[in-house]
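Sample A.
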Amino acid sequence: MAVAGATSSGGGEKADAAAWLAVIAGILGALMATLDISIVNSALPTIQGEIGASGTEGTWISTAYLIAEIIIIPLSGWLERVLGLRTLLLGVSVLFTGFSIICGSANSLGMMIVGRAGQGITGGALIPTAQTIIAQRLPREQQPIGTALFGVVAIMGPVVGPVIGGWLAENVSWHYAFFLNVPLCVALVILLLVGLPHQKANLGELAKADWLGIIGLALGLGGMTVVLEEGQRVQWFDSSLIQITTALSVVGFICLFAGQRFASRPVIKLSLLLDRQFGSVSVMGVVVGIALYGTSYVIPQFLANVSGYNALQSGLVVMISGIPSLFLMAIVPVLLKRLDIRLAVAMGLLFMGGSALLNARLNSLSVGHDFTDGQLLRGFGQILSFMFLSQAVVQSVPREDAGDASGLFNAMRNMGGSFALAGISIIQDKRLWLHERRIEETLNANSYTVQHYVGANGGLMPAAGQLEQQIMNQAYVMTYNDIFWLMGVGTLAVLPLVFFLRPLPKNAKPAAMH
């Protein structure tokens, strides 16, 4: 059966210009969405200061995006059937840009969170639909080219995001990290109108939707995230907010599981998790999400709070992890044929866990180049883990469940990122307080060392201020070391799950990933 937009040339099919324009549109949309996952990371300290958010509250700027993506990714296939591919992409592209303008204009944390959640709920649909365009508009012989282009964007978007965001924050304004999406959207809309044919909407699908599951997914994940993010700050269940959101989360998950029982086509096919291989892949996906999103968030925070780096300098350090990813991407087809999946995933997890443990040995004099080895190791680890786990997802379920499995795997990985950011917020609060108190306990006001320090620094008041700053600095270093250590050990802890993986077929082709 010929692929729409393909023309015959010689012995095989070739995609025409309109088909390639559609593919470029899909990849451009995915680029916008993946860039905005991390474009705020390096500029986050600056943004927090300007909108009046604390370090703990600032994690919401990243978490809101990830949670919204988790909700929309499994719904993308259904929305495509309801609205048609072109209508869906035009709608989410325009809305994504509108929410980007809200983020760029934000002067409060609440306004920023609304904008970021809107970006996630619309941008999340841009990523799987890019894969759909490649599958629908390119003939089989040319699909590896489209998949490779998508893979480069999927990997490099989150990596170069902090650099672009950092450069704009330092040389223009952090607001333009979001306004950048306006010209990209204009180009995307033009490409979609030219490259994709209009499809008639099928509003009858609305009646068949798993509304219990959709509502449950939003309430369950949204409520759980609020509990994790805000619980520590408001003393957990002493707060009516936590009590209410916990109840909503429980109701949400009940609705989600009810949808599994009563819906003809559940929004997320959770029964797939009962498969030994797919369940193992999903757990590893959560852990990889924790390691990836957690480290890309913590490194800029350390460099800003301890090393005094600006947003651009922090972004350049984060970008180092993209170098091995680009190198390996070119030889992935060879690796898929030659390298046993169990060995590849084990190596990926070892590299990612090892990189976090390398970063757990920081001190107050650590600067950007102290992250180089860890970042290079992480880059090798993430491409091995992502590519082979993505391939395992496709191979571990029946062909008719491949779309559901891909959506569930991507949602699980993003959930890992959300858990990481919420967990970092809690750990940072608790460990920072603990380390400050422990350091203070070692300082006796009557000791010779303290008395000498006071005398050498101009008396009690000046010395007290400097000493407090030094205690805070050391406490930050110890806290970030704790976070890196936990991420490293947590990543290595799932290594035994690789034994549940089955070898890939010898003719395996790269599976699209996000």
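Sample B, a different protein:
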Amino acid sequence: MEIQMHLETELCFPELPNSSCRKPTLHWSKTVLLNVGLSSISVITAALNLLIIISVSHFRQLHTPSNILLLSLAVSDFFVGFLLMPVEIFRNTACWVFGDLMCSLYIYLSGILMNASLEIIVLISVDRYVAICDPLHYPTRITVTRVKLSVCLCWFYAIFYMSLYTKDVLIKPVIIIIVLYTRVFVVAVSQARAMRSHVTAVTLERSLNQSNKSELKAARNLGVLVIVFLASICPFYFYSLVEGNVVNASSATFLIIVYFNSCLNPLIYTLFYPWIRNAVKLSITLQILKHNSSEANIL
């Protein structure tokens, strides 16, 4: 009897069946600290990604295939910070009072954004694969129009497959990303060795070498983005495979790590891309409100 009463005091709604959610057990001081910390990350995530979205969308010079992919990823990350993080904070620090419908909507939206992010990372890997492994055909194969179409298809694909939710669908993009980027880095290393072993004075060849170096640098920078993304998301999927659909403190922790990746992505952009820093600076100082500011030279 005592055990039963103890269990009932831990439930948010003891009068309901045993499926009723449990009350958070953290001390109020820890709860406040957790709320403040995670809420700050949520605000920073939404703000940083909104700056990336505004900057890349506004300046015409940034309307390149690679940057459009980064823009799409920033859109997904913005909604993670603006919608998913606040809900996850509430779920872990208070009793859920919004009913099954809102809970299902949260899970559905979370799945769409995570699927879309995975698929955009696949497209980024494909973009770098073609740029490094087939650079002569890159301008004709990877165009702005094709990238925009691919991004739209990714979002439709994420929405459709979330309706048929299965972990196998999510694991396959991760495998594709790893295979493509392994190939990219193998080719990149071989090209770097070839460039070091052949020195030429021909102007055209110098130009080609400079182009190759630029593509290698771009592959390295986006490679950091991919590695950080996989490092954030893989623990959650491994845990999900082992534990199934069990929802507990551990699963919530892994999910928050996945969401935290959305805060790291814009920091990676600004760290490795000077033109992104310039664009963000102009956005923060409201220079984008000036006439013809979209045509500014920021590269």
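Observation for Sample B: The two ends are 72 Å apart (CA to CA).
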